[in-house]
């Protein structure tokens, strides 16, 4: 396939089902760190469930309704970015990401998200890009701000969480805002 260099040490690559072992190893290193922030269906616990997660995203890619890409830092999968949903007819998509603790703060997630948002807006005609995060995920909200997204609002107590009901913030950027922003991929 392809590897898109983001920095000297980081590559963005498709994360396909045949990479399930690498994905599971990444999730094993990240599991407790990301558990509060991602869907339980994403945090695979064995090779079969890791393959199933990646197959769901492969199926989404094939049906033009989502996708997933990994971040390899010095040859090791340390996280990734995804189009959680992708609807060209409505012109709306949702982006997301995850990263293991050792990869945090290394400047790799923002350029990866920028790449997929830029592709969605400029190549596919997406009009609204959404970012959804729990209200207490300060790192995620800071990244949304750095990417130029705006807080649309909070869905209060939208779903059960480990410590009670969670509030979910919805952030977004519109195509015109994205295209008018200064072009920076890092």
Binned, the helix content reads 25-40%
Task: Tell me the name of the CATH class.
Answer: Alpha Beta
Q: Mind telling me the C-alpha Rg?
A: 16 Å
The geometry reads as globular
Write down how many β-strands occur, each being a DSSP E stretch of 2 or more residues. 8
Q: Architecture, according to CATH? A: 3-Layer(aba) Sandwich
Catalogue the unreliable spans. none
Q: What's the tally of helices?
A: 5
**SSE topology string:** EEHHEEEHEHEEH
Distance between the termini: 23 Å
Name of the CATH superfamily? Gcn5-related N-acetyltransferase (GNAT)
Largest sheet: 8 strands, mixed
How much is the average pLDDT? 92
Q: Which fold name fills CATH's third level, the topology? A: Aminopeptidase
- Strand fraction: 25-35%
Pfam families: Acetyltransf_3
Protein name: RimJ/RimL family protein N-acetyltransferase
Organism: Micromonospora inaquosa
InterPro entries: Acyl_CoA_acyltransferase, GNAT_dom, Ribosomal_N-acetyltransferase
Task: Explain what this protein looks like in three dimensions.
The protein has 186 residues and is an alpha+beta fold. It has helices at 20-34, 47-62, 109-123, 138-146, 175-180, and strands spanning 4-5, 10-14, 67-73, 76-87, 92-99, 128-134, 150-161, 164-174. Strands 1-2-3-4-5-6-8-7 form an eight-stranded mixed β-sheet, with helices on both faces. β7 (150-161) and β8 form a beta hairpin. The radius of gyration is 16 Å and the shape is globular.
């Amino acid at each position: 396939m392809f590897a898109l260099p983001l920095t000297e040490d980081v590559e963005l690559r498709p994360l396909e089902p045949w990479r399930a072992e690498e994905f599971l190893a990444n999730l094993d290193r990240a599991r407790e760190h990301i558990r509060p922030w991602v869907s339980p269906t994403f945090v695979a616990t064995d090779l079969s469930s890791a393959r199933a997660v990646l197959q769901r995203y492969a199926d989404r890619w094939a049906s033009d309704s989502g996708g997933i890409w990994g971040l390899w830092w010095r040859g090791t999968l340390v996280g990734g970015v995804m189009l959680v949903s992708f609807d060209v007819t409505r012109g709306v998509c949702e982006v997301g990401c995850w990263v293991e603790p050792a990869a945090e703060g290394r400047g790799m997630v923002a350029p990866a998200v920028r790449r997929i948002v830029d592709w969605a807006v400029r190549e596919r005609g997406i009009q609204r890009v959404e970012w959804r995060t729990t209200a207490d995920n300060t790192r995620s909200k800071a990244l949304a701000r750095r990417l130029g997204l705006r807080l649309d609002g909070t869905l209060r107590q939208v779903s059960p969480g480990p410590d009670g009901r969670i509030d979910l913030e919805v952030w977004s950027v519109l195509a015109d805002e994205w295209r008018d922003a200064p072009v920076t991929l890092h």
